[in-house]
Amino acid sequence: MLLGIAVLTGAPSLHAAPELATAAVEADWILDRLARPAPMRTAFVELRESRLLKDPLRLSGEYRRPADDVLVREVRMPYAETTTIRTGEAGAGEATIARAGKAPRTFSLSRAPELAALQASFGALLSGDRTALAEHYTISSDGTRGHWTLTLVPKRTDLAAQVRDIVLHGRGAELRCIETRTPGSEQPQRTLLASAAHAAAGSVDTAGFAALCHGDADAQ
């Protein structure tokens, strides 16, 4: 779920300026490029692996940001489920989960610190506000402007108990993939976005999914 940070589309090409594509990247440069105003939306494809699952679970749907304080994650396949996170005043807010055939469940974000931090970091990321993002995460970057990673490590104990780190993969101004690692997990949860999600529209195995996430492939 993390990341909902994901409502980022459209990347200006760096091919016309190869010296920029190969320039070392800094976190502030990435944050400046990822800043987007609401409203916006993007498709996602997510692969979840677990020892409890015979085969990886593949989810697909759409992230929407209809307003600055609202994040919507709509799963369309293999089931229908919509999670809506709304932030209120002074950091208060609520989350609503609606699933086909069941009554919606609404609860305070104070009961789900990982969702509260998600919404806060999501807003900071899309506004390019490193100071606000740094309240929740230690930030580091690696790579070049044409092929970069931005790593977020939770500072708060309650969030760190749920998430070990979040690694964003991108090219230029396009966020293509989010890897979320949880404590004790063998494999990260990968969410493909924008052009990477479209490239995974067909059948993609675990290795192909990872290649798309890391920018090592454009299609399978």
Q: Tell me the strand order in the biggest sheet.
A: 6-5-4-3-2-1-11-10-9-8-7
What is the percent of helical residues? 10-25%
Coarse shape: globular
End-to-end Cα distance, whole Å, is 24 Å
Question: What do you see in this structure?
Answer:
The protein is an alpha+beta fold and 220 residues long. It has one domain (17-213): Lipoprotein localisation LolA/LolB/LppX (outer membrane lipoprotein receptor (LolB), chain A, Clam), CATH 2.50.20.10. Helix content is 23%, strand content 37%. It has helices at 18-21, 27-34, 113-127, 130-134, 157-160, 194-199, 206-213; strands spanning 40-48, 57-67, 70-77, 81-87, 93-99, 105-108, 137-144, 147-154, 165-171, 174-181, 189-193.
